Structure formats: structure tokens, C-alpha cells
Amino acid sequence: MPETEKKAPRVINKSGTLKMDDKTAATKQTRDISGKRMDRRNRRDRVRAEAGPKEFDEITIAVDRVSRTVAGGRRMRFKALVAIGNHKNKVGVGVAKGNDVTTAVAKATSKAKKSMITFNMDGETVCHETRTKVTGADVLIKPAAPGTGIIAGGTVRSIIGLTGVKNLISKSLGSTNKVNIAYAVIEGLRQQVPRKEWNGVKAEKAEAKVEKTEKSAAKKASGKETK
Q1: 68: which residues sit within 8 A by CB, 6+ positions away?
Q2: Does residue 131 sit in helix, strand or coil?
Q3: Which tens digits make up the pLDDT trace of 178-215?
């Protein structure tokens, strides 16, 4: 009798089904419930593409729970204070309320993007000293030498950290309300004027121009007299 060929042993999975070999798996057609053939190329890619780098970084400075008394009782909501910046010379602050924290933060971020400002810098510090008041908040901002770092409190440090300012001295002299302090910092950055546009520099340039014109006029007059 001819020798019987040895059959490959059956491999059973944990679910109780037979494990297919590589050849069977390569030729097997996948079908749906109705029996139609499914083409794998038409399947939606389940791996999401990685999101690109963000243009602006955002930070949630404070989230408070607020209430409003109405006829039926109290309505509780959340108020979020958010700051955004590009680590250069653009920064913005937004405040918004929502029924939950996520909604409040999203609305505040949208407001911050709409109210962004572009301010002037002198290297890695501010151009000059400013003192701004917004309602009860009173914030003093002063330039600092390289290597000083950011010497400021919580709210001011959070906002300045989203800008390109690396050296700064700040002091809060009034209210401790975070919202008012945030708006005072934004106003102080908005008031920054570059050195070349200071009044003293303009006056010096004007005086230099007058001296040049006087000297040129004197030279012309002396030249005519010699002739």
C-alpha cells in the first residue's frame, strides 16, 4: 500500500475556530452580511493623521464657578480666563462663561484669539517701564537686564510666559482680581513704544538736522564770500 501523506496538524484558536495558514489567509475573500465582497482598499483609514504644530499656545489661568439667582432658584455656571500667545510678540486674553468647564474654556480661547495684540520688544525684554490701571488692578512692568528672568506673580507670569519676553520685573500694586490683572498686563504691553520713537530721541534727531542745515548754509555763505 502506498504510504499515506502526513497531514499538517490542526491548530485551534482560543475561540474554537481553526487557525488559517498563510496561503489560505492570502486568498480568502472578506464578505459582508449580505454576502457581497468587501474591498479592503475602500475601508476608511482608522489611523488619524497627526495634527500639525500649533501656531499659538494657550493656558487656562483660572476657572471659577459663578451663580445667578432666578425665579426658579440658582443657576450655576463656570467662568474661564484663558491666555494665548505665539512666544514672540503676539498675545491675547479672553474671558467667557459656559454651562461646563470645557465650553467655558473653548469660548474664552475663541475670544482671546479675536482680541490678540502685537506689541513692541527690545531684544528679550520690554521697551520701557509702564504702569497701567484697569478698575482696581494696578500693574507695574519694568525692563530687566539679560539673565534676570521673569520676576512676576502668577497671572503676570502666565501671560508673559506665552510671549518672547525673557527678562522682566513686575509688581501688582492693586487688586488681586486675576481678570483685571490680565487686562492690565495686556494694556501695559500694548503701550510699549520702540526706542527710536521716543520723544527724546525725536528731539535729538531734530536738533541734529538743524545743526547740519546751519553748517551747510554757513559753508555755502563762506564759499560765496571767497569768490
Answers
A1: 74, 75, 77
A2: strand
A3: 999 999 999 999 999 988 887 765 556 656 766 777 77
DSSP string spanning 154-219? Answer: HHHHHHHTTSS---EEEEE-S---HHHHHHHHHHHHHT---GGGSHHHHHHHHHHHHHHHHHHHHH
Q: Pull the grid cell for residue 79.
A: 467662568
Residue 111's CB: how many other CB atoms inside 10 A?
Answer: 17
pTM score > 0.85 for this model? no
Cell representation of residue 24: 489560505
How far is the C-alpha of 168 from the C-alpha of 105, rounded, in Å? 28
Rounded Cα distance, 178 and 196, in Å: 33
Tell me how crowded residue 62 is: count the other CB atoms within 10 A of its CB.
16
CA 8 to chain centre: 63
Confirm if 58 and 112 have CB atoms less than 8 A apart: yes
Report whether pLDDT(219) > 60.
Answer: yes
Neighbours of 155 (CB within 10 A): 26
